[in-house]
Amino acid sequence: MRLIIRFLRHPGIILFFYFFCGLSSGRLYADGLNNIDTIHKTEKLRDEDSIRAQTNNFEQIITDRLVRQPKGLKWKNIDLVEKILVFFLLIFLVMVMAGLSVILTLRILKTFKEKKALIVSQEFEEFVTHILFSDDVPEEGKFFSDQEIIRILSFAEHSLSGEFNRNVIMDFLLGLHRNLSGESAEKLKQLYFIFELDRDSIQKLKDKKWFLKAKAIKELEQMEVRKAYRSIYRCINHPNVILRSEAQLAIVSLKRTNQFTFLFNLRTELSEWQQLNLLNRLKSTKDLKTQDVPRLLNSMNESVVRLGIKMIQHLNLVEYEDNLPELVSDPKEKIRIDAIRCLAFLQVDSACELLKSRYEDEIPEVQKEILDAIGSLGKHSDLNWVSERMHSHVLALTNAARKAMLQLTYQEN
Amino acid sequence: MPSRILIAEDDVLLMKLINIRLEKDGYDIITATNGAEVLKIVESGGIDMIITDIMMPFTTGLEIVSFVRNHSEKYIPIIILSNLALESTILEAFSLGADDFINKPFSPNELSVRVKRLFARKF
């Protein structure tokens, strides 16, 4: 508005009105501008008065408040909301300080333990290298000479006091044992027993923390501490999956005979991974007795039955192939699939007719396995049967049928 | 002058054990804990045999074998130590030019015998 008025008061505009619109127009224009000025000035004065009045009021309010309030800030005069805020602020500050103190203390403790562990491990390194590569010749049937025994006992007395030192030495000894074999590994194992570290491992097995139990099981398994078998056996059905997996694998390693009979008492499920781990462990077991494998196929535990089938397949236990056809009709789909795969792997030709008879009553996943098996087990006379299955609305079945056709045709040629 | 053997192993305790065992046999030992160190030492020369782990930081044992066969003027026998007992790894190691392959866990006494046997061969 002010800009417009300024523009209108420009001398050029006034002259315009005087010269182009006539003298009277020019006078009227000039009078009009003067009136606008007067109105603005009056309004401005009015605004200033009202502002001044408001300011005076505000100052009065502030003065009243200050007069009413005594000097200094007192707790009882602070509002409730402000009191609550201050309280929470103090709590927060205390918690931050406490948290920082705890972190700092733990950090200092950790650094101290690391330094201590380093000293202990360096002493052990020096000791163990002398023992392993000593020139002393022990008596026949013994691992250490008399001099070495004295050195070992001296080390045990000096460095094996306290739980911390024993744990550090245990970790080092076992870590080294994992990488060595032969005479050196045997000497380390003997040291483990001479230092009575097997007692530490068995004690750890009784701990409530599952990860310490699992660690203890690994230690006892590595050092073949057979007397711990019963304690480890109690963990095969533990609710913690890692702990029970370790226990199951350790049982297979520690037992001299009937390495997998613990599976008869297994109440928990074996994952695919655990089944493979157990299978791998059983495959590397010397003189594995397999007469109890058919019993696994009668287990109520589905995963145990599946492991039994895998054992027949991967250990080539052809003497038990007659147990498989029955499993092709099992209520559990995964068992049926595993049984069909095993029959195909073992090349049990006699199962061909059974599989064909089951085809129509099966779900697509099992039908696919049947087609794959027929491709492996079937003969030329089965080509018609397979070709009739090539026009399924399920793509996987069509593909499986085509693959079986190719295999049977190639076989024929 | 004793033969110089370079041991490349990132497990420090195991490296020390091998070091002590071979020093007892009268060899001069140099150690490295990663592949980059090994390459530098090989380039500087003076090495008569290399014993290397496969899995190491920066450069694997197989890469070291390949480098030594392609860049070293003299023939340096190489022994591989590994806990990867896969057939493919063993075949690859030999195809690149390794002279021996020892699976972990291994016996230090056995390693000592293999080292002596390799030095006895004329390259």
Textual characterization of the structure:
The complex is a heterodimer of chains A (413) and B (123). Helices cover 71% and strands 0% of the residues of chain A. Chain A has helices spanning 2-8, 11-20, 23-68, 80-132, 146-159, 163-179, 182-194, 197-205, 210-222, 229-233, 241-254, 272-283, 293-296, 302-314, 324-327, 333-345, 352-358, 364-377, 383-388, 395-412. In chain B, helix 1 links the parallel strand 1 (4-8) and strand 2. The two termini of chain B are 18 Å apart. Chain B is built from 5 helices and 5 strands; from the N terminus they run βαβαβαβαβα. In chain B, strands 2-1-3-4-5 form a 5-stranded parallel β-sheet, sandwiched between helices. Chain B has 123 residues and is of the alpha/beta class. In chain B, helix 1 (12-24) crosses helix 5 and helix 2 (35-44) packs parallel to helix 3 (61-71). The A-B interface holds A 125, 129, 132-133, 172, 175-185 and B 11, 13-14, 16-17, 20-21, 24, 83, 104-110.
Q: Which segments of chain B are poorly predicted (pLDDT under 50) over 5 or more consecutive residues?
A: none
How many individual β-strands of chain B? 5
Q: Please summarize the sheet with the most strands of chain B.
A: 5 strands, parallel
Tell me the overall shape of chain B: globular
Order of helices and strands of chain A: HHHHHHHHHHHHHHHHHHHH
Number of strands of chain A: 0
